[in-house]
Amino acid sequence: MNIQRVSVLVKKDLKKLIRDPVVLFLIALFPVILTLAFGTSFGALGSSPATYQVGVVNMDSEGLYDHWSQYFIGNLTETKILNIQNYPSNETAQTDLLQGKLQAVLLIPSNFGQSCNSFWNTPTNPSLWTNTTVQLYLDSGSMFATQAVLPIVHQVLAITVYGELPSPSARPIQMSNPSLIQASKITMFDYMAPGIFAYATIFITMTVAQSFAEDRETGLLRRINTTPTTPAEFMTSQAISNMVLALIQVALVFVMAYLVGYHPNGDASSLILAFIIVSVFSLCNVGFGLITATIAKSSGAATGLAFVFIMPQMFLGTFVGLALSPTAKAAGRFVPSYYVTDAITSLLLRGAPISSPTVLLDLAVVSICSIAALLIGIALFSKYGKA
Amino acid sequence: MSDREKTHKAAIVIDNLTKKFEDVTAVDRLSLEIGKGELFGLLGPNGAGKTTIINVLCGLLEPTSGSASVGGYNAQKEPEKVKELIGVCTQETAVFPYLTGRENVQLFGNLYAMPKEALKRNTDELLEKISLTEDADRRVGKYSGGMRRRVNLIMALVHDPEIAFLDEPSVGMDPQSRRAVWDFIRGLKQKGRTVILTTHYMDEAEELCDRVGIIDHGKLIALGSPGQLKDKFGVRNLEEVFIQLTGRRIREGI
Questions:
Q1: What is the sign of the dihedral through the CA atoms of A263, A269, A270 and A276?
Q2: Which residues of B touch A8 (CB under 8 A)?
Q3: Number of H helices, E strands in chain B
Q4: Whose CA is closest to B30, among B58, B53, B1, B61?
Q5: Chain A CA closest to residue B96
Q6: What is the C-alpha to C-alpha distance for residues A310 and A304, in angstroms, rounded to an integer?
């Protein structure tokens, strides 16, 4: 195996990705646009609520001046923008915030009423005030909550404490800087994202089929065949360049998904394994591309024929399959993309560890399918597809 | 001088070669020897079998019967060794349109595992010779047809092969570019390289070739230097030789 040959062929393929607008669109822009579209439709961006779920923990509910905190909570409820839910303890409220049931938690301190009272007793003498702080925790994954809840609470607090008085520059009650809590809120988009990763890679079938058919039409395959380049070197270069391509695709889709509110529930090792699974799956699509190129008479025909492999994988094995009937879902087990989606879902949605039997079984199935598809593709193309 | 070079004076030996595609006989019992350093022309109309002969010599096609050796190596049994020796300029313009002219040439140099320095030197030299230095870093997709043909030619020669197969190298070129390609081919001859040139331009063959073999329906119907063939048939050019042999003009095809 001559590394110089393999490396120069890989570079050539990657240059094609950057320089050929059709390939660039299909491989890079299309998945990104798709992710953006689904993310905004089904994710945190698109599903922004008209009201915000705010949990309130009132630690001043039994004191001498507890009417102040009741008044504050009443005012918060009256805003209509905040849906106030009372919690007996900070722990339960924090749990619901972490699980995505709340966008914010407000902690009213035990000396809240005393502080308000001290202000009204001596409004002009801050040295006699009882100072305190209202704690606010926000879901960092909710863009709207982080932007909207704090100013609303600020405004309601000012009205509650100072009433008709102009808000003084010195205040007995401060709002804490809100703590941003990473909630494990699951949106529809979180369910779809693993399938979108698999979906993006499926289109490698089309680009490989087109590329081989086109190179055959223009005589480039024959020409490369007149050089000392061996079939093993050529196919290795194809495998490497398409794996790199798949990694670029998934990285782009992942970044885009993250920006529009995707919340992966896994650590770095889960993420790395997800990328490995997708890159292995890309080899399967290289195999399907070679089979397509063998059958297709021209590059145009290859584009159409590629859908024979793309459609079942897309409908049965990716995010599209979420909406299918139980029968169709069962049929999904016959397409490799199903196992890619299942593995990534386990890793990044269910939070399964990388040693999880489900994930390892999925990886094994994807690997076997990929090796089989690649070998069949190489054998068929070598025998019938070169001419 | 290696043992192979000592024992094989001929660059190419074709022995009773036949190649059939189902019912069609593309090459019919062809026997031929081409000497080292010779500039040999394979002449014939389109479909005569010229490209099939080259494909067999390059190890791309298995002959139905007979054998062919290139540089002392059997083209079917040792194709990997043959491929180290040869450079092939294909009849179709086989270039990567998304690469620049320079990148196309260097890609093929790398496929022959050329050292970096030699590759750069040869690439620059060849681009200069075919007047493409200024456009070398433009993508080939933006080139004119003639420019692509010229890149197509030097892609086959960047590694300075012992034996060059040039399949219709000047087809589709304007007269000026054709003359430039002719000078280029003469340069190969002067360097002692063996060149097998297929063409249906009789003037090109007369101008360049030491010997020509005229192929019709896969058969070698005449062999000799252009002068010998003209004398033998008492005609002024190779076109007339072909008419005498086949009763039709070469451009009419088979």
A1: positive
A2: 106-107, 110-111
A3: 10, 10
A4: B53
A5: A220
A6: 10
Q: Can you read off the two tokens belonging to residue A278?
A: 């997708």
Phi/psi region, residue A351 (left: phi>0; alpha: psi -120 to 50; beta: rest), is left
Q: What angle, rounded to 10 degrees, do the helices at A231-259 and A357-380 form?
A: 140
> Do residues B154 and B180 make contact, with C-beta atoms less than 8 angstroms apart?
no
User: CB within 8 A of A313, min separation 6: which ones?
Assistant: A198, A202, A335, A336, A337
Tell me B143's DSSP state: S
Give dist(CA A9, CA A15) in Å, integer: 10
CA distance B127 to B121: 10
CA distance B6 to chain A (A): 24
Domains in chain A with CATH codes: 3-44+187-385 (no CATH), 52-181 (3.40.1710.10)
A-chain residues near B60 (CB < 8 A): 222, 225-226
Helix (H) or strand (E) holding B4: helix B3-7
Beta carbons of A8 and B110 less than 8 Å apart: yes
Beta-ladder partners of A180: A138
Predicted-complex ipTM score: 0.86
Q: Quick check: helix, strand or coil at residue A129?
A: coil
Residue-wise pLDDT for A310-357, tens only, equals: 888 888 888 766 666 777 778 888 999 999 998 988 888 777 888 888
Q: Express each pLDDT in B78-136 by its tens digit.
A: 889 999 999 999 888 999 999 999 999 999 999 999 999 999 999 999 999 888 899 99
Do residues A137 and A54 touch, judged by C-beta distance below 8 A? no
**What counts of helices (H) and strands (E) characterise chain A?**
17, 6
DSSP state string for A183-238: -----HHHHHHHHHHHHHHHTHHHHHHHHHHHHHHTTHHHHHHTSS--HHHHHHHH
Please report, for residues A154, A160, A258, B249, the alpha-carbon distance to residue A148 in angstroms, rounded to integers and kept in the order given: 11, 19, 21, 87
3-state helix, strand and coil shares in percent for chain A, rounded to the nearest 5: 65, 10, 25
List the structure tokens of B154: 């030097």
3-state secondary structure of A330: helix
What is the spatial distance between Cα B89 and Cα B168, in angstroms, rounded to a whole number?
8
Greatest pairwise CA separation for chain A in angstroms? 97
What domains can you pick out in chain B, each with its CATH number? 3-90+163-175+193-252 (3.40.50.300), 92-155 (no CATH)
In the DSSP assignment, the letter for residue A385 is: I
Beta strands across the sheet bearing B163-167 = B86-89, B163-167, B194-199, B39-43, B211-216, B219-224
Whole-prediction pTM: 0.69
Residue A63 CA to residue A74 CA, distance in Å, equals: 17
Q: List, as ranges, residues 212-241 from A with C-beta within 8 Å of B.
A: 218-220, 222-230
How far is B123 from B88, CA to CA, in rounded Å?
16
- What is the spatial distance between Cα B174 and Cα A278, in angstroms, rounded to a whole number? 51
pLDDT single digits (tens) A26-58: 777 888 888 878 777 766 554 545 578 899 999
